[in-house]
Design goal:
globular, mainly alpha
Length: about 280
């Protein structure tokens, strides 16, 4: 065992196998700072600061790869200051595993872009470690990230196919061509799962001893409740209720992100019209 799975002080002193199911990374970072002499409170604040830096730097690197450093700076600001991120970090403090996992999203996508550019063992291992870090931060979010990462890998394949049309390499077998690129761009998944197997294998096989089985958990927390409606997704900022300990904040995209999205769509339309003339 790489770390203790039993929390002896929980459940009224009877103990609880918390870390069989709770990913360890959000706890490891504060404990590392505590091992260096910092109080646990400072260690927890260090985790938050570390996550904020992950948001900014990850979004910058990912956007810079495609659109340059100016877009990278703008993306870093938008991603770090997104309403949902601030909601988790400042208002509903305590859900730091989720906050940390979302901060790792752009890092994984950036790693895929590095594999796409050069499928070296170093890039594959780097992306596998980043993917595994999401797994060790929040289990639910690795289920969200995986299809997102797969979709981005397909986008990279589309870009590659456009380039191949120019060089006439598309004459190769369609199936062989895409199979090789799919294997290459997703080559980080298996190493990432192997690196984190010490956590997710016990969690998967021991969940039958908890109330997280399908017939119990999905009955009280159906998957459909996880999806937002358009009214909340596009909601305007709401004034905070100062009387509430955890004031309600909508899961909205935010005015800045929506405005830039509209400007981006208009810019794409304008560029296509000017290029077709």
């Amino acid at each position: 065992m790489l770390y203790p799975r039993w929390a002896p002080d929980l459940a009224y002193g009877y103990g609880y196998p918390l870390w069989v199911f709770a990913p360890p990374l959000p706890y490891v970072i504060p404990l590392l700072l505590a091992a260096l002499g910092a109080p646990l409170e400072i260690g927890l604040k260090g985790l938050i600061i570390f996550a904020v830096l992950l948001y900014a730097l990850g979004a910058y690197l990912f956007a810079r790869h495609h659109l340059g450093w100016r877009a990278g700076l703008l993306s870093a600001a938008l991603y770090t200051l997104a309403p949902f991120a601030l909601r988790e970090a400042l208002l509903y403090g305590g859900n730091y595993p989720q906050y940390l996992a979302i901060g790792l999203y752009p890092w994984v996508l950036w790693g895929i872009s590095r594999i796409h550019r050069r499928a070296s063992w170093g890039n594959i291992l780097l992306t596998a470690v980043l993917y595994g870090a999401v797994m060790l931060s929040h289990l639910f979010h690795v289920l969200i990230l995986t299809p997102v990462a797969a979709g981005y890998a397909l986008v990279e394949l589309r870009i590659t196919n456009d380039e191949l049309r120019i060089t006439n390499i598309q004459k190769r077998s369609f199936v062989v061509h895409y199979s090789l690129f799919v294997i290459r761009n997703s080559s980080f998944i298996v190493p990432g799962l192997l690196l984190t197997a010490f956590f997710w294998i016990p969690a998967f096989f021991e969940r039958s001893y908890t109330r997280s089985t399908d017939d119990i958990y999905l009955a009280v927390s159906p998957v459909t409740s996880r999806f937002l409606n358009w009214s909340e997704l596009l909601a305007w900022p709401q004034p905070l209720d100062a009387r509430a300990a955890n004031p309600w904040v909508p899961f909205s995209l935010g005015i800045a992100a929506l405005a830039l999205a509209v400007l981006g769509v208009l810019a794409i339309i304008f560029n296509r019209q000017t290029s077709s003339r």
